[in-house]
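Apologies for my clumsy wording, but are you able to produce some protein sequence, whichever is easiest, and the tokens describing how it folds?
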Amino acid sequence: MAEVVAEREFALNLKERREQVKMDRSALADLLEISTDRLADWENGRGLENLTLQEMSRLAETLGTSIGALAPEAENDLENGALYQLPDQRSVLKGVRGGTDYYVYHCLVRTRTAPSMVPLVVDVLVDDPKEAKFNDGHAGSEFIFVLEGEVHMMWGDPENPNETVLPTGSSLYLEPYVRHAFTATEGSGGARLLAVNF
């Protein structure tokens, strides 16, 4: 039941934001390079179980907002100033880029008191920097902390990126709309990081 309510709320938030920025459905679908029918399904709460985090990010960026603003509010809010999430309450999403399983996102606790904050533990599955797929940046800032392994980080111009290798314990801040990509270091088998968008 909670999933159905969350899907309806996401669909309503998506449609309201599209209308707020005075964009018709076909214009948004064209910008997202999806069919108008698929967008209509999302706005009516259908097909959302297959919506990837990458698609949510692109929706938010195209509409000039954040994933947090589109996502449903948390079912529970703060109790005496705190909110916790147990491991069995965590959503896990697969991040696919270019047809490749690229990441696994473990969604951490969120609260309506900080709706734009999106904390994730990210399993980085690709370990070949030549396979890096740049995103278009995010509407909010991003903080990254490497939990395990080494991360090959790239940002800026995809044709001539800034690059660094971040070992376990390293952190990085990205300002809004900075294009970036990361993989595990070559041949390492993967890495894990904490990413917080805000």
